[in-house]
């Protein structure tokens, strides 16, 4: 069955394949377009340089009207990443917009991690 959420996720996947943002990758698991595996590469010139941080993204049928659940699978030291790996990020909660796609979500997470690193350095 093709729902609006599944069609949108396939469009997001096509974009990730044809025009991926730098330092991130993502794809749905083999038998379920509603669950994705993602990787963020640590930014250059930081303690996370060349690190790979794995995440899982869970989408509901209400996507894109409702944000996905995003969780780090890799160990991540960050004040807004809970011990469970769940992420406290405004665009995944009260600042969500249906215009955000998988690429926008992952680049936001990537920036979020990078801003924390800058805070530590300064």
Describe this structure in words.
By secondary structure, this protein is an alpha+beta fold. The protein has one domain (4-121): Roll (Ubiquitin Conjugating Enzyme), CATH 3.10.110. The protein contains 2 helices and 4 strands, in the order αββββα. The protein has helices spanning 4-18, 102-121, and strands spanning 24-29, 32-41, 52-58, 69-72. A hairpin with a 2-residue loop joins strand 1 (24-29) and strand 2 (32-41). The longest helix is centred in the C-terminal third of the chain and has 20 residues, at 102-121. 23% of the residues are buried. The model has no long low-confidence stretch (mean pLDDT 89).
Got a strand count? Answer: 4
Rounded to the nearest angstrom, the radius of gyration is 14 Å
Biggest sheet record = 4 strands, antiparallel
Number of domains: 1
One letter per element, helices H and strands E, the order comes to: HEEEEH
Return the CATH class: Alpha Beta
The level of helicity is 25-40%
Mean pLDDT: 89
What's the structural blueprint in terms of helices and strands?
Blueprint: H1 4-18, E1 24-29, E2 32-41, E3 52-58, E4 69-72, H2 102-121
Antiparallel strand pairs: 1-2, 2-3, 3-4
